[in-house]
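Quick one: structure for this chain?
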Amino acid sequence: MTEKNNHLGEIASIISSCKRLEEMGNNKTGPRKIIREAIFFIWETGVNKFTKFSKNRARSIRASKVKDIKNLRYDHPIPMKIIIEKLYSLEKINEASVLKVLDKYLKDGGILITKEEDKILNEKGLQSSMPNDWDGIDTLARYKKAEIKLLDY
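Got it. Here's what it folds into:
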């Protein structure tokens, strides 16, 4: 297993535990926030990976010109709400199945966009959802619909 994926067992275990908590009647907000944070801190910015606002982080063309990180937003091309649903719908939650979902929908983590671009996503109803005509494959469909151009992605 590559260094990038050496903590997939922990992520799979967290997903399984959180899913069980929901099945036991717990409100879904807490368990899903735990999954979101685990994926962020382990998969997206874990050991030997880019920090949230790293100069090496993928970004929009407009974000590449911003000097102050206060004017940037860390955004997931596929909203985490959708990724978590994909993870919950797995027949078997294990390292291989989690890797398949994360590699397909999250790759190396979020993308930096400007506050203005984030506002455009909100105005178009794409803050936490994909476009209605999303094919389930194009991970950049939200940005294309909002006309947000990415730098070398």
